Amino acid sequence: MRSSRLTALLLHLQAVRRATAAELAAELEVSVRTVHRDIAALQDAGVPLWTEPGRAGGVRLMDGWRTSLDGLTGDEAAALLLLGAGPEVLGGLGLASVAAAARTKVLATLPPRPRVQAGQVRQRFLLDAPGWFHRAEAVPHLATLAEAVWAGRRVDLRYARPGDGAGAAIAGLADRGEEADRGEDAGRGVTRRVDPFGLVCKAGTWYLVARHRGDVRSYRVGRIAQASVRAETFNRPDDFDLAVWWRAGRDEFARSLLRWTCRLRLSPAALRGLRHAVDPFAARDALAGASTPDDAGWRVVELVTESPEVALAQLLALGDGVEVLAPEKLRAALAETARRLAARNAPTADGGIPGRSVGAGGRPGTGGGHRGEDDGNGMVARLSAGPGDVPGPVPSRKDISREDAP
Description:
The protein is an alpha+beta fold. It has helices at residues 2-16, 21-28, 32-44, 74-81, 87-92, 96-108, 112-124, 142-151, 242-256, 268-277, 280-288, 308-316, 328-345, 378-383; strands at residues 18-19, 49-52, 58-61, 153-159, 190-202, 205-212, 215-220, 224-233, 260-266, 299-305, 322-326, 356-358, 364-366. A 5-stranded antiparallel β-sheet has the order 7-6-5-4-8. It is elongated and about 85 Å long.
């Protein structure tokens, strides 16, 4: 790593001819003290550079002197391909300094004007991949896993199962009914010896794609409690394509959640808004199989969702452009929810807000209102209460494991 940094420092000075130690530290993402040590190392190696004190001073390279060390190393070439992924990805993979060296080498080969334009890109365009309100997940073992992926070495993993006490915070990958591995005890988690094929960053969340007992799976890196790289290597299939496998597994996982069907009649506006209210796969399949429109443009669709509860919440987003044809319990639940919604938001005769009173000092307070058994999630809870209404428990997305599918 230091040799790459020294090369990057030298090439940057070759491009700009003079820079302060603070500027060099910012460019290479190191401390000023490290820059001074690197300058001394270059001087000892015979590079003609010196430092000048004062406001106009800095580190200077002798005019006309150039180095031929413009070539990229293997790590730098790899980091260059990942520059667009953003600093968080590069930092997580341990490639931040290598990427800085690669960037500096590329800029050093450009004429002055294109070099300035390339530098302006970083100031004018920014990729911030994670969605809003996404809290970065701690991934202390990401660099270790990246090392194993690069080297093609087996890894021993440990992670916790749901409900394993304190381990539940990092938890919960399903097993596909496998026989439990050794070392699996409540509170200790589950161990796996895997062949790491690659790492995927999905909307700011990292997944390890690895082979276990001949089956390729994905493991959420933030839930891995321990990871150690073994000495032995493994044979990676020549025909394995990480991007192709991930897309196929992602789509399969999304479809596996959709297992509860309802029949609807939708208005033209609801048909247009369906893809915004439900899962994209479900919307696409429903629209593909829709009936011919009636005189008012309404069409009948078969919509597959995760559960009755999810269906109720999603259909509310379509407003008055939806009519549930089947099952009857969903139709009744939607009607009851709409009645309660209308009653709660109906204006009073004097224009006031029901359930609100004026407290001491003239400030609004709570009073007069009450919460009955149907408030909150009462109606949703009763959707699947009857025997035989739903074929078995239907988990929500939050309960679905990420070991078996991305």
